[in-house]
Amino acid sequence: AQTVTQSQPEMSVQEAETVTLSCTYDTSESDYYLFWYKQPPSRQMILVIRQEAYKQQNATENRFSVNFQKAAKSFSLKISDSQLGDAAMYFCAYRPIIQGAQKLVFGQGTRLTINP
Amino acid sequence: NAGVTQTPKFQVLKTGQSMTLQCAQDMNHEYMSWYRQDPGMGLRLIHYSVGAGITDQGEVPNGYNVSRSTTEDFPLRLLSAAPSQTSVYFCASSYQFGTQYFGPGTRLTVL
């Protein structure tokens, strides 16, 4: 079974600085998607960034970028120029392409605090 | 375009009661799914549907029932509520290989 592990239950960073959240996953599939979702106190799950495993280029979305290491099964999220609005729970998620397009597997989450 | 909507936002049940959590999407997505989120954990898949009339079980299906009679709606039924079903429930939808979009969630407490 696929698993996703986020080893940092909590992280904090000073406003305007850079922070990296870690995620590792376990799968025997060669083709899949990886995601980072943000969950603010409102509970809404918001997509931050998505990476296709067949793409070697790391995905970026404005201040958010990933470091995707397929061989190491690692998928970290870097947030640059941290803002107060970035404070939230962040979840890493995996979805296989072959078996069950709906089956998102989530990590346990990392709570990110931004210090003003 | 409302996206994914869920009702109710909050619900309190007594043990043994039944209820239906409603989910609707207006994006014409084929895929819909239900997750539960317990404290300190990520979301876990309960049931999902790949189209009208087709449903399947996820990781934690026991105690829940689903059906999908239309593309837009995917209700989740609790047959006989138990305290272990106290959780936050999320509905999500997507195209076949697209990103899943989540509803705002329903906080359910079973006493």
Keywords, separated by commas or semicolons:
heterodimer; A: 116 residues; mainly beta; 0% helix; globular; B: 111 residues; 7-stranded mixed β-sheet; 4-stranded antiparallel β-sheet; 11 strands; 50% strand
Low-confidence stretches of chain A: none
Helical coverage of chain A, percent range: under 10%
Shape of chain B: globular
Q: Rg of chain A, please? A: 14 Å
Average pLDDT taken over every residue of chain B: 93
Q: Give the terminus-to-terminus CA distance of chain A.
A: 41 Å
The ordered string of helix (H) and strand (E) elements of chain A is: EEEEEEEEEEEE
Largest sheet of chain A: 6 strands, mixed
What is the helix tally of chain B? 0
Order of helices and strands of chain B: EEEEEEEEEEE
Number of strands of chain A: 12
The averaged pLDDT of chain A comes out at: 93
Kindly name the structural category of chain A: mainly beta
**Computed structural class of chain B:** mainly beta
Tell me the β content of chain B: over 45%
Could you characterize what this model shows?
The complex is a heterodimer of chains A (116) and B (111). Chain A has 116 residues and is mainly beta. In chain A, 0% of the residues lie in helices and 52% in strands. In chain A, the strands form three sheets. In chain A, strands 2, 5, 6, 10, 11 and 12 form a six-stranded mixed β-sheet that branches. Chain A has a four-stranded antiparallel β-sheet with strand order 3-9-8-7, with no helix packed on it. Chain A is globular and about 45 Å long. The mean pLDDT of chain A is 93. In chain B, 0% of the residues lie in helices and 50% in strands. Chain B has 111 residues and is mostly beta strands. In chain B, a hairpin with a 5-residue loop joins strand 4 (31-37) and strand 5. Chain B has no helices and eleven strands. In chain B, 35% of the residues are buried. The interface between A and B is medium-sized, with 23 and 28 residues.
